[in-house]
């Protein structure tokens, strides 16, 4: 890499980081999800804005290929892995065994029904207008179904934390349901990505070595591989947990534990590539198991890793998402509006029905439906990995990202109004929240 190319890489990363943090903090100041601001920062530097005003500057800073494109692309990939790792680690603090039947029913209704609707909806649209270079209709169908069914843990948990309702029974229900949905949907997404990767002529990995080429055999292999990988990781974590007795082996060296976590994260992600399992799923599982086993110094090291990721890699990832958006040439207004409408109705109505089946009040069921409709980070990750894999084209990629943004905004606005009406009450015992406005919770003024 020449000095000129190195300068362009460093300048591009610096601009992406500044834009992401600047717009992210601006959004946080107005009590909006910072992730949306980070995407907007990248949008300003991409073909939508900078490309229209100074096209040569945009092409010089952010070329689509070559050595200069490789640097930001590597940071983008690491940002996605660390985002999925931290999302998995965060689940150790949100899952609750209380209200188990209620959570199971809401999760089943809120995930299975929208997923089936997504599968059926594909039959009613022209898939040729949505397919990416991979040309795999089955993978496209799975992606669209997941896009309708997915729920965001990072965004909705951040919204509820800022509103001061994170310790309510309502918040625990939302996050517990989201945990179940995200684990299952990540398996499905991994299958879709594995099918596409295994079907390439220059295929790499175990499936290619075994000569698995047909669509049915590929789908079966990647389904089994994803589930087997999850089970194997859980078994390894259980064995290690029993051998160490839950003690931290690096109590006096927390930074060493950060290094170990990164080695494991990268090694497992690399193994996933060979096995035909999506590396983002590997990072998610490592984070999930790592968070469940963390205590003492290990928890401190997890916080250090998460802090660095949130300061550099993850903002660059979301800014790059905005950089990929082209609202001038790859934006279908009517299809996007229709998709958002169908996705919102399918997810919200099914979650509402599931909540009502567990004897929740109409008001609480409606609040649950809107909160679970937020797609946030997982929806954006789904869009980016399917776009990078060639499953969806640029137009559908834009639609999926905008769906994640719009649904997150709706959830934040709705819950803020609910808090202002005194709907929720902080209760460590998870008592049902009153609906008479008698227990208003003050809103956290800092936001973020």
Could you characterize the architecture of this molecule?
The protein has 448 residues and is mostly helical. It has a domain at 87-294 and 327-420: Na+/H+ antiporter like fold (Up-down Bundle), CATH 1.20.1530. 72% of the residues lie in helices and 0% in strands. The protein has 18 helices and no strands. It has helices at residues 3-29, 34-45, 50-53, 55-61, 67-90, 100-121, 137-149, 153-162, 169-198, 206-209, 215-244, 254-275, 279-293, 297-324, 333-357, 362-372, 376-388, 394-420. Helix 12 crosses helix 14 and helix 16 (362-372) packs antiparallel against helix 18 (394-420). The longest helix is centred in the middle third of the chain and has 30 residues, at 169-198. The chain is globular, with a radius of gyration of 22 Å.
Q: What structural category arises from helix and sheet content?
A: mainly alpha
Amino-to-carboxy terminus distance = 38 Å
CATH superfamily of the domain at 87-294 and 327-420: Na+/H+ antiporter like domain
Instruction: Give the CATH architecture of the domain at 87-294 and 327-420.
Output: Up-down Bundle
**Quaternary structure type:** single chain
Number of strands: 0
Total number of helices: 18
CATH class of the domain at 87-294 and 327-420: Mainly Alpha
Helical fraction equals over 70%
The fold-level CATH name of the domain at 87-294 and 327-420 is: Na+/H+ antiporter like fold
Task: State Rg.
Answer: 22 Å
Poorly predicted sequence stretches spanning 5 or more consecutive residues: 248-252, 427-448
Percent range for β-strand residues: under 5%
Mean pLDDT: 80
What global shape is seen? globular
InterPro entries: Cation/H_exchanger_TM (IPR006153), CPA2_transporter (IPR050794), Na+/solute_symporter_sf (IPR038770)
Pfam families: Na_H_Exchanger (PF00999)
Domain Cation/H+ exchanger transmembrane: 19-418
Organism: Streptomyces salyersiae
């Amino acid at each position: 890499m020449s000095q000129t190319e190195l300068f362009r890489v460093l300048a591009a990363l610096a601009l992406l980081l500044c834009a992401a943090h600047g717009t992210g903090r601006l959004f946080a100041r107005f009590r909006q999800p910072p992730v949306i601001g980070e995407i907007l920062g990248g949008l300003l530097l991409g073909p939508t804005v900078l490309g229209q005003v100074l096209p040569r500057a945009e092409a010089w800073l952010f070329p689509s290929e070559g050595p200069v494109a490789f640097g930001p692309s590597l940071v983008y990939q690491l940002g996605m892995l660390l985002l999925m790792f931290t999302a998995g680690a965060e689940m150790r603090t949100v899952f609750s065994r209380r209200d188990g039947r209620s959570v199971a029913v809401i999760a089943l209704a809120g995930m299975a029904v929208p997923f089936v609707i997504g599968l059926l909806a594909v039959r009613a649209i022209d898939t040729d207008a949505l397919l990416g270079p991979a040309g795999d209709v089955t993978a496209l169908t799975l992606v669209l179904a997941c896009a309708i069914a997915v729920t965001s843990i990072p965004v909705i948990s951040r919204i509820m934390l800022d509103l001061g309702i994170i310790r309510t029974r309502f918040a625990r229900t939302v996050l517990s349901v989201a945990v179940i949905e995200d684990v299952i949907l990540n398996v499905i997404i991994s299958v879709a990505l594995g099918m596409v990767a295994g079907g390439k002529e220059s295929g790499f990995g175990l499936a290619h070595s075994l000569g698995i080429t047909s669509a049915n055999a590929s789908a079966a292999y990647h389904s089994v591989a994803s589930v087997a990988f999850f089970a194997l990781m859980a078994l390894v974590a259980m064995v290690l947990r029993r051998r160490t007795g839950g003690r931290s082996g690096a109590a006096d060296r927390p930074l060493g534990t950060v290094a170990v976590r990164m080695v494991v994260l990268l090694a497992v992600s690399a193994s996933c590539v060979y096995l035909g399992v999506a590396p983002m799923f590997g990072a998610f599982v490592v984070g999930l198991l790592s968070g469940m086993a963390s205590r003492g110094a290990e928890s401190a090291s997890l916080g250090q890793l998460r802090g660095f990721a949130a300061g550099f890699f993850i903002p660059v990832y979301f800014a790059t998402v905005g950089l990929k958006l082209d609202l001038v040439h790859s934006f279908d207004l009517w299809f996007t509006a229709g998709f958002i409408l169908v996705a919102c109705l399918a997810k919200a109505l099914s979650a509402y029905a599931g909540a009502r089946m567990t004897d929740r009040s109409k008001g609480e069921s409606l609040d649950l439906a809107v909160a679970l409709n937020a797609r946030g980070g997982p929806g954006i990750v789904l869009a980016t990995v399917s776009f990078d894999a060639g499953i969806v084209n640029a137009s559908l990629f834009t639609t999926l990202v905008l769906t994640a943004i719009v649904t997150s905004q709706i959830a934040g606005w709705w819950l803020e109004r609910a808090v202002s009406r005194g709907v929720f009450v902080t209760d460590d015992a998870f008592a049902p929240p009153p609906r008479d406005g008698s227990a208003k919770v003050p809103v956290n003024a800092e936001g973020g």
